[in-house]
Amino acid sequence: MDEPIARIRPYKVEDEKQVRFAIAKAAMEGLASANTKTILHPVSLSLWALLAGLLIQYMGWWPKPGAGFLAYIGLILPLGSAAVPIILFSDWNNRWYFDDLSRRVLRGPDMVDLQEYYSRSPASGLWILEFSNRLVGLMSIDASPSNTEENHSDTAIIRHIYVDEPYRTTGIQQDLIDYAVQSAFTSNSSITKVKATSSRLREYVDQALDEAGFKYEGVLETVGMLRWQVRNRILTRDEWNKRQNS
């Protein structure tokens, strides 16, 4: 029996449905992280403890002295009930940004015709990460002079990065970024820098960009209840060459 293998290959038209689904997932995956971080924030935990205590006190559910350990099992209901408004409030405040991000991404100029868009420049590309002939990740770089973020012919932009969660612990997202960046720099000598954005809400992408040598270039925006930073990142050709020769 053949061992399953991982490979990075160019996008094909028959990948379209899976790629669009993965891009949509990538746009929304930060929401779960934002909600978890909000709910586990010390202020949220303190509020939960206060609400639970008030509810138990109001309903007279405190176990009587000597009632034994089993009496405390009844506190599961008020403890869980007190968490519900905090969870709903967190999601309600965080979700709007990710809904808007998803709409922006899915209406992006590349989404009209993926094959055609990423064929406009030799340094552009949309690559698929496969494992055992199954799509488990993707990466795209836009080096078109008409890209809306920069409109400079010397700049390539990472538009999409996604790896299925079970494969992130292998660090394969690092290989995907390195492969795409190398392709951009070697395909067009006029490309002098590659740009990206990242936040701590997608930790695996943020760490992979760090390992690839991307430096911080300022804050693009802040998002969610706790105002997490979405930061611009940049890797210059000079820095990339130094890393290749080290």
From TrEMBL:
Residues 85-233 form the N-acetyltransferase domain. Keywords: Membrane, Transferase, Transmembrane, Transmembrane helix. CDD domains: NAT_SF (cd04301). One of its GO terms (molecular function) is N-acetyltransferase activity. It holds the Pfam family Acetyltransf_1. The chain crosses the membrane at residues 45-63, 69-89. It comes from the Eukaryota. This is N-acetyltransferase domain-containing protein.
